[in-house]
């Protein structure tokens, strides 16, 4: 197949001749996959040539939707019904502590419509969803404090009702053909048919993170604009395009710049420009800076970083490549032999001002923080050496692949990076020091290989500034391996200015590592969406609590734990039992706000 041209053929009763598409035009058409905002295009010409009803009939006859079944050990990844209305929570073991602020704890995560993720099979092959897909659902726990100090706690959940959610909900059946993984012809066909039928090639999931900016709440996923959410009702409002100035997706982890409160984001696309950076005013009304990073590939970067003066981003070998897809390869692929580099630029700089630092190949989805330290930019994150996205190559058994990758590390003789092929998805805290004067890079592991750690969090007031502490979710290797899905059986507190005095598995102290304190849950109990809640009037950086959703798989009961970060290994100060099961999800946030009177209106008997 020539690189400059590809013939895509559809054989059906309504279309006898092949459809021939120039690959450059085809890439432009497909560029609004998961990675670019599909514009509101006029598809009237396509409709004139091919009836939407005829296309629907073709899809119904040629494509068979099948469930992507879950194993019993994966039961808490299954979707639940939405409540839409807040309910009073009365079962609280312990007490909500003094200094805990009124507010809302929210967590986002996938909750697929129609019972779960789907695959399709057809004459073009098979296509399916990745494990990170599924419509977003917000779970919210409201904390209101009365004038006499009494607490009212309410729970609610609700789907993030994006435009594509409403479309499928109205049709009351799976309608968008899955287009993330599978046989290349099937994925390409899904793109084209979704575009012709709906004007976009994939669903807006909005299932990954939840952020606040300028008093407004937004849900985000990499494939679209943020969706504004009413914090009290969880109802979806408008998409946020910064008054029309931003027409690309957001990263799932934009950052507030220290000092100014501006929001720094970036959006990726499968065609040039592959990545653009934006700086949004503190009031959220104006895009004050926008620039093309001028990358030569589309890295599926999940997060951007800030310091007092700089923006920092990772260009690494997990890429989105339409050309690769059209030649029969995967749309998303991690190249273990590919290069990685970190770019540092002034807040309002351009592409020519970026200072690039070559770093060791890695796959880092989540970063802890970044800050300036003399001539150095210090970056910390949960670094792995292989990607869990999209998963195994086409034709491989997914469960066996993930099960093998999630096994505990038995030993790492020699270097802490001397892992076997099946241990490369093991994330753990890591540090890069980029010297802006000399261009030199220093890298080191911050922890050993006892536990993998991911989904890190810090006190939000220290974003972009030097911080002493961080926290992360601790993956349970045995439970994750047996289920083929990542499960987090505890939390860790990292103290960067204190050395690790523990003993390694070989009965000797490992030099240069960071102090770790653990809060581990009971067996078969796992958490998601951990967030830091600062104490009102707190003085120290670690004055506060970790709040997290927790699910006990033996009892099938979901709770929210409050854990004192200054007595980290102690029992939670409060365990709040929820009225329904909460499936595992992704990221959470705690939004302080006065709530007591509002809760009375939300739940009349509160």
UniProtKB/TrEMBL annotation:
Q: Which GO terms describe its cellular component?
A: chloroplast stroma
Q: Where does Fe cation bind?
A: 253, 302, 366, 587
Q: Keywords in UniProt for this one?
A: Dioxygenase, Iron, Metal-binding, Oxidoreductase
Q: Which residues cross the membrane?
A: none
Q: Which domain of life is it from?
A: Eukaryota
Which segments does the entry list as coiled coil?
none
Q: How is the cofactor bound?
A: Binds 1 Fe(2+) ion per subunit.
GO MF term set = carotenoid dioxygenase activity; metal ion binding
List cofactor names only: Fe(2+)
Question: What GO biological process, any one, is recorded here?
Answer: carotene catabolic process
Q: Which PANTHER family match?
A: BETA-CAROTENE DIOXYGENASE, OS06G0162550 PROTEIN
Record's family?
Answer: Belongs to the carotenoid oxygenase family.
Q: Give the protein's recorded name.
A: Carotenoid 9,10(9',10')-cleavage dioxygenase-like isoform X2
Species the sequence originates in: Herrania umbratica
The record lists the lineage as:
Eukaryota, Viridiplantae, Streptophyta, Embryophyta, Tracheophyta
